[in-house]
Amino acid sequence: MNMKYALCGVALAALVTPALAANEYFVVQDSTTKKCSIVEQKPTMATTTLVGTTVYKTQAEAEIGMKADKVCAAK
Q1: Which helix (H) or strand (E) holds 65?
Q2: How high is the pLDDT of residue 61?
Q3: Is the pTM of this model over 0.70?
Q4: Nearest to 27 by CA among 48, 13, 11
């Protein structure tokens, strides 16, 4: 019985772990206000554009990238 619970726990951890580690952050610019922001999903709308091609693994990296980008830093 204990082995059954252990296997279920391992299977559940294997399914949940990739979902938690798959965070991606993008720097985008609103085309009307020209304001930059950080989002967790690649933009698909016509009102926002991706700034650069870098995909950041943490929000802190994205913030540093946004400050360093000429498009966003000019504001």
Answers
A1: helix 59-68
A2: 92
A3: no
A4: 48
